[in-house]
Amino acid sequence: xxxxxxMQTQLITATPEMSLAEGQRLMRDHNIRHVPVVSGKRLVxxxxxxxxxxxxxxxxxxxxxxxxxxxxxxTPIKTCMTKDLVWIGPDIEMAAxxxxxxxxxxxxxxVVDNGTxxxxxxxxxxxxxxxHTAHGA
Amino acid sequence: MFVKDFMQTALTTVTPDTTVSTAYEMMIMxxxxxxxxxxxxxxxxxxxxxxxxxxxxxxxxxAPPMAEHELTYLLEQLCVRDIMTxxxxxxxxxxxxxxxxxxxxxxxxxxxxVVRDNNxxxxxxxxxxxLRAYVTQYDAGRST
Lengths: 137, 144
What we know:
Chain A is an alpha+beta fold. Chain A is built from six helices and four strands, in the order ααββαααββα. In chain B, the strands form two sheets. Chain B has a two-stranded antiparallel ribbon. In chain B, strands 3-4 form a two-stranded antiparallel sheet.
């Protein structure tokens, strides 16, 4: 079973200039944890809810809540996104994509075809692929 | 393939009286962060489960995400029993992996405790364990 038959193609993406607060809203509104960051159609990074949590200023600082909110609204995603990307092509086997997820300990793989982001594969998509093949067997 | 073939049996557990801050430290003070801790009685009976998300929610306010040490301080007052999930969906060692997989997809859980007949804890199985099974099965299929 190939990645292109199981990947998600209705993509929610962010841009590098989008603020951390906007990124957080995007994840909350769509109930997702991984968002590809694109410049045009080109994949330039990945951002997760954890990346944003770690980048957020701690309330233990002398900053007020208003100041923290201001920073979240003005800090761009490109400052904390993962730029060292692992991606796959649409024609590899889902089992191979799953192996890559496990090896890299990541929850989501962007799928890139001819330099363009065409989908993502999450661990839940890998699980669906497993159940398909197990049923077929 | 059955749950018992891929479940984890070297378990970190807490009791209902463990403080939430201790439980949280047990989750984060390790090389690989764990996200769920089964809650067992002294006799080993499973009575609940607690996740890092439960803990974050217990410390949640409208403030931005808290730093780890601040969360720990807030949670020293609470015990695991106060915030654990009590109605736990469980599987058996003899449950087929596919069935466990369907529970993960339907309920959007990340982890299922594995119990024996008397509800004592035998192991846990996670989505990651199922993905390992997938890769193992795929490799076995290619080598035959």
